[in-house]
Amino acid sequence: MKVLAIEIKWAVIFVVVSLLWMVLEKVCGLHGPYIDYHLYLTNLFAIPAIWMFVLALKDKKRRYYNGHMTYVQGLVSGTIISVIVAALSPLTQWVVSYVITPEYFPNVIKRSVELGYYETTTAAAAYFNYKHYATQGIIGALVTGIATTAIVMLFVRSKNRTVKQ
């Protein structure tokens, strides 16, 4: 378990920051009166999400690999973080949906029908619900986490600095 301590730490940090982001969105009114802007502004979470992966992979490189980490080692580490975040995603979504902002789904269902994105409340409710968001969260955590890791590791990996004579 000690081998995975850094990945577990950063996965938990990621989940906590995600929950804090949801609180911020709610406080700013993006789950209520300003819900029309939610679709766009929620994507700003990519900034802290990418930054957390940079910090996590640098932490793994420094603490576990003594400052030298290959691309593949980092890719494995980031994938492990992504899998843990994905595994915690249904719980995270439950906290968001039922504790932080239980009014989000009713509000977004109503507004999406008003704007004509869906013809009926039933059709909107089939998309905007806990089960669908929990499933999206699992898939999204895996896909975006691994993709982010693949890109971040291009910069974080140790470069081969052998000098040829």
UniProtKB/TrEMBL annotation:
The keyword Transmembrane applies. InterPro entries: DUF4199. This is DUF4199 domain-containing protein. Keywords: Membrane, Transmembrane, Transmembrane helix. Pfam families: DUF4199. The chain crosses the membrane at residues 7-24, 39-57, 69-88, 137-156. It comes from Taishania pollutisoli.
